[in-house]
UniProtKB/TrEMBL annotation:
Protein's UniProt keywords contain DNA damage: yes
PANTHER family for the chain: DNA REPAIR PROTEIN RECO
Protein name: DNA repair protein RecO
Function: Involved in DNA repair and RecF pathway recombination.
UniProt keyword annotations, A-Z: DNA damage, DNA recombination, DNA repair
DNA replication/recombination mediator RecO N-terminal domain ranges (all copies): 55-126
Region (Disordered): 1-27
Family: Belongs to the RecO family.
Pfam families linked to this entry: RecO_C (PF02565), RecO_N (PF11967)
InterPro entries: DNA_rep/recomb_RecO_N, RecO
Recorded superkingdom: Bacteria
Organism: Candidatus Vallotiella hemipterorum
Length: 289
């Protein structure tokens, strides 16, 4: 069950609390305060493998199913992405109708063992500001990334916590270019498509005075070494300082913002293949994000 009592401290046998990624002094600390209520949540043992009770999660997308139901693409902290059948959710008086909204934390309960579980209960948790205007569009972009890169039933607790932080930062109107780059990089790392940006594939430290390329199949390579070995390379050339800034999650430099955008576009386009993100084109057209 989900608890809100601040006076009760978690025991070692309980699942870990949600840990804020922003530490004291971090520029994102202010945004993280809006999620402070979520850091007090902890989830006890579920009823069984068949019935799972009150798991913290978000709605990524909904699909109509027959006349009155919905299929929910949910992102949960403990179970990863799940497909949940919300029976009767489109009926006017359904208790689920007004609850299954994107970008709001929910306590989700479901039953079943097949790939399509049945949603048995959904409760609004609260504690987060709603997204609006450009932040809302960025939120849909982030959701689409999760749908495309995260396999079902593959938990990514660190990614879930960073998703929570990302929504809070967007709601507080922090610069979208910085918020999105931070999320994109962690997403690629958590799903196995990117590694550390302060070491090359030969385990050499990245230095500010050199230039690098990120080979999607090998990893980070020193441009001068590739030229010496007469190896061809593709993708944008990135300054060492930019890579170190990205590793520190520091996007205060205009050059870092520009080069990190080029790098993330290249990597995302490469890994997504022939099916690009629909929201990405809208963001590029409207804001050059």
């Amino acid at each position: 069950m989900i608890h809100l009592d601040e006076s009760k401290q978690p025991h070692s046998s309980e699942a870990p609390d949600i840990v804020p990624l922003a530490m004291s002094g971090d520029p994102a600390q202010k945004s993280m305060e809006s999620c402070s209520v979520l850091t007090r949540f902890r989830t006890t043992e579920s009823y069984s493998d068949y019935r799972i009770a009150e798991q913290l999660g978000f709605v990524l997308h909904t699909y109509p199913y027959r006349e009155t139901s919905l299929i929910i693409d949910a992102f949960t902290r403990s179970h990863g992405r799940l497909a949940l059948l919300a029976k009767g959710a489109k009926r006017p008086y359904s208790a689920l109708r007004g609850v299954l909204q994107t970008f709001q934390p929910l306590a989700l309960s479901w039953a079943g063992k097949s790939k399509m579980r049945t949603l048995t209960k959904a409760e609004w948790v609260g504690g987060m500001r709603p997204l609006a205007s450009d932040a809302l569009l960025c939120g849909f972009y982030v959701n689409e990334l999760l749908v495309r890169f995260c396999a079902q039933e593959d938990p990514h607790i660190a990614l879930f916590d960073h998703y929570l932080l990302t929504l809070a930062r967007l709601a507080h109107q922090e610069p979208a270019v910085q918020v999105l780059r931070s999320f994109e990089l962690l997403l690629l790392r958590e799903t196995g498509f990117a590694s550390s940006l302060d070491k090359t594939v030969t385990r050499q430290s990245v230095v500010t005075g050199r230039s690098y390329v990120f080979d999607p199949e090998k990893g980070l390579c020193d441009v001068e070494m590739l030229k010496t070995q007469k190896n061809a390379f593709r993708g944008p050339v990135i300054a060492g300082q930019t890579l170190l800034d990205m590793e520190r999650d520091d996007y205060s430099s205009a050059k870092t913002i520009a080069q990190s955008k080029a790098l993330m576009r290249f990597l995302l386009d490469t890994y997504l293949g022939d099916t690009p993100l629909s929201t990405r084109h809208i963001l590029i057209d409207l804001q050059n994000l």
